[in-house]
Amino acid sequence: MLEQNEIYKCPLCGNVISAQEANGPIPVCCGQTMKKMPEITVKEEGTEKHKPVVSIKGDKVIVNVGSIDHPMDEDHWIEFIQILKDGKVIAEKKLYPGDKPRAEFLVEDSNNIRSRAYCNMHGLWTND
Fold first, then answer.
1. What is the DSSP string of 36-51?
2. Is the C-alpha dihedral spanning 71, 97, 85, 105 positive or negative?
3. Which of 47, 75, 117, 118 could form a disulfide with 65 if both were Cys (CB 3.0 to 4.6 A apart)?
4. Does the model's pTM come out above 0.70?
């Protein structure tokens, strides 16, 4: 069963989606069941370029992907950055090759905020 906020990727074309609702069927793309992308934690190799670094300044949440900026090349880039509050995605920024690997979000309450970033080559990374 589908869980809200899970990320799925097509094994054929690479299309990536975020589940908006829970309890639905596992998504299908190109005639294939999409693969759930696990969240990669800070214990994994490559954190210096993939782990979201979150800073909070008043009502602004600033997310930089990596303590060293992640590449944003045509064949290797961060596709999106999300912030979650209490387990739910509350904001997302889509990125493209050539963009800076960062995002700023305005929030009313920054308690229990965490971030995820999706690298087209290395998967879904979290700051947890």
1. EPPEE-TTSTTHHHHS
2. positive
3. 117
4. yes
